[in-house]
């Protein structure tokens, strides 16, 4: 075999060798921090840490900044993978933006890159401060990174959010590829090469590693398991919330090699590599997006619609601390997230933006009040790049998505005329979930969408429908049977809105009725107003 064609291990050596590790040290090898009895002072430190960062900073501060992650447990296909010296892998600048990040997580991220990325490919690490207020991120940080010589700190004069902070990093970057990372990550061995190799193959590929969880309580890193049979990819719902889902079954079956990339409709947006010139070509970011949120979906739609591709490279594994809650507050609260989303909907989603506005009523207000700023430059960009429309994206890139009506047949609160009560389902833990039965409520109401397929959808983002099980009087809320490639609604979820305002279920032939406050189906009777429903 001709080995001369591939990089040797020596050539891919990192910038810094890890100092010898004590396997008994807290968190060593990516293991959990471990339980211990805490003194009252320590307990206070732990609580304060949590309040500040929403993860166990107490534990992080006691784990080595150089911890390694133990044995390389990736799939054998990944371990066998070699990289060709000709044409060769490009160099990269790693850009890490931060706002009030803890010292230990930020520096562990930095060291983790220095200990794992091949020195020959790593041009620099750029730390961009989004105007943090914490003292440890000022001169102490400047002084500390000086000795790391390829690490630089850049600072935004005022806090404007991660989007402009990243753009500031891009301005300064000297590498051929940009690699973005959150400020609380740890890289698994061999994470960088497969990302760069894919960009050599496909210059218009935007590639993410497989993101592994670092537990926010004990800092345990979930190691890759070669026996994992599942792969996840990114998606979105009609509230424009990002989420994860399993890749489609057919795609899973077609996979013959673990090194193959996974196409993903959207990406999480924090950890990825992109060729610098392609990043410029495709319109960088929407600079008018503020603080946090939405830029990942904007980039996902834009890249796909304008001829690029977004992929997850399963042999590249990077850990990230997932938190339950955002640790930072934002000026004007959460409205700026909505504002960012409205901007992207206005530019990329065509008339499908109306489905978003219905799902996220705050967005509707932002839109109506015209407070989302000027998007004309972004629309020009779309034109200049001759991008596909959103319907093309849905059909070709995410055919598994549920595509709502742009304008539903009816939409509103459903009022029962006899009882003057509304169809009402309570959220559980702030989320819509299926419920086996529910009451008609005289005070509170929810919005229902009566679709062109005659379903009654409570929530088009969580895909929940009014459901009448055969042989059962009580009506439930259940997952909609019609979604993605399934094109027919189930008869249990089909309701004919009759001329005299009854809702007749196709499966049972019965009508939606209120009986003693409870919502049921009963034999349709022409003169019963407790079967009469108005959309308000
Ligand atoms: O005002 C801010 N200014 C900042 O510089 C708020 C945050 N930040 C920094 C912060 O220090 C961090 O490095 O921006 C980065 C992301 O913020 P996080 O870590 O508080 O939020 P997150 O992990 O939920 O962020 C995810 O969603 C964001 C939406 O704008 C970005 O796309 C993040 O990059 C993204 N993170 C990931 O994709 C990592 C994988 C997690 C997932 C899913
Ligand atoms: Mn993060």
Describe the structure.
The chain is built from 15 helices and 23 strands. It is of the alpha+beta class and 536 residues long. It has 3 domains: 28-321, Spore Coat Polysaccharide Biosynthesis Protein SpsA, Chain A, CATH 3.90.550.10; 334-396, Helicase, Ruva Protein, domain 3 (Orthogonal Bundle), CATH 1.10.8; 410-535, Trefoil (Acidic Fibroblast Growth Factor, subunit A) (Trefoil), CATH 2.80.10.50. Strands 12, 13, 14, 15, 16, 17, 18 and 23 form an 8-stranded antiparallel beta sheet that branches. Helix 10 (295-305) runs parallel beside helix 11 (335-348), helix 11 packs across helix 13 and helix 12 crosses helix 13. The protein is elongated. The chain binds ligand LR7 and manganese (II) ion. Residues 97-99, 101, 130, 161-162, 165, 182-183, 211, 268-271, 291-293, 295-296, 320, 326, 328 line the site of ligand LR7.
Q: What's the gist of this structure?
A:
With 536 residues, the protein is an alpha+beta fold. The protein is built from 15 helices and 23 strands.
């Amino acid at each position: 075999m001709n080995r001369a064609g591939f990089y040797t291990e020596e050539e891919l050596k990192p910038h810094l060798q890890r100092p010898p590790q004590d396997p008994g040290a807290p968190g060593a090898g990516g293991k959990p921090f471990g339980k211990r009895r805490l003194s009252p002072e320590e307990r206070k430190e732990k609580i304060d840490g949590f309040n500040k960062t929403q993860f166990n900073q107490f534990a992080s501060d006691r784990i080595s900044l150089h911890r390694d992650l133990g044995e390389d447990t990736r799939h054998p296909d990944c371990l066998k993978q070699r990289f060709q010296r000709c044409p060769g892998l490009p160099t990269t600048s790693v850009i890490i933006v931060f706002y009030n990040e803890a010292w230990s997580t930020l520096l562990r991220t930095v060291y983790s890159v220095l200990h794992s990325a091949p020195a020959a490919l790593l041009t620099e690490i750029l730390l961009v401060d989004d105007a943090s207020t914490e003292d440890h991120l000022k001169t102490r940080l400047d002084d500390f990174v000086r000795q790391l010589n390829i690490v630089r700190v850049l600072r935004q004069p005022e806090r404007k959010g991660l989007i402009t902070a990243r753009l500031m990093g891009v301005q300064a970057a000297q590498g051929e590829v940009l690699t973005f990372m959150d400020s609380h990550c740890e890289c698994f061995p061999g994470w960088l090469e497969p990302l760069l190799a894919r960009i050599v193959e496909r210059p218009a590929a935007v590639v993410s590693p497989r993101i592994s969880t670092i537990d926010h309580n004990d800092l345990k890193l979930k190691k890759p398991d070669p026996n994992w049979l599942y792969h996840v990819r990114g998606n979105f719902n009609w509230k424009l919330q990002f989420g994860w889902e399993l890749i489609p079954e057919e795609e899973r079956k077609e996979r013959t090699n673990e090194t193959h990339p996974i196409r993903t409709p959207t990406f999480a947006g924090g950890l990825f590599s992109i060729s610098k010139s392609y990043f410029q070509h495709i319109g960088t970011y929407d600079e008018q997006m503020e603080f946090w949120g939405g830029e990942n979906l904007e980039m996902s739609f834009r890249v796909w619609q304008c001829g690029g591709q977004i992929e997850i490279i399963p042999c590249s594994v990077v850990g990230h601390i997932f938190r339950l809650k955002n640790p930072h507050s934002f000026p004007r609260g959460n409205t700026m997230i909505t504002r960012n989303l409205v901007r992207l909907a206005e530019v990329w989603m065509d008339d499908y933006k109306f489905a978003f506005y219905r799902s996220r009523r705050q967005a509707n207000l932002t839109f109506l009040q015209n407070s989302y700023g000027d998007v004309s430059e972004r629309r020009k960009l779309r034109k200049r790049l001759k991008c596909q429309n959103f319907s093309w994206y849905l059909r070709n890139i995410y055919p598994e998505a549920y595509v709502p009506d742009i304008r539903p047949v009816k939409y509103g609160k459903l009022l029962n005329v006899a009882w003057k009560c509304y169809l009402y389902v309570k959220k559980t833990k702030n989320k819509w979930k299926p419920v086996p039965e529910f009451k008609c409520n005289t005070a509170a109401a929810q919005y229902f969408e009566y679709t062109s397929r005659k379903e009654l959808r409570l929530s088009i983002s969580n895909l929940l429908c009014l459901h009448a099980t055969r042989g059962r009087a009580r009506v439930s809320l259940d997952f909609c049977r019609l979604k993605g490639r399934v094109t027919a609604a189930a008869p249990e979820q089909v309701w004919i809105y009759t001329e005299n305002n009854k809702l007749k279920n196709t499966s049972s032939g019965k009508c939606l009725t209120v009986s003693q406050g409870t919502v049921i189906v009963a034999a349709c009777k022409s003169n019963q107003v407790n079967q009469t429903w108005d959309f308000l």
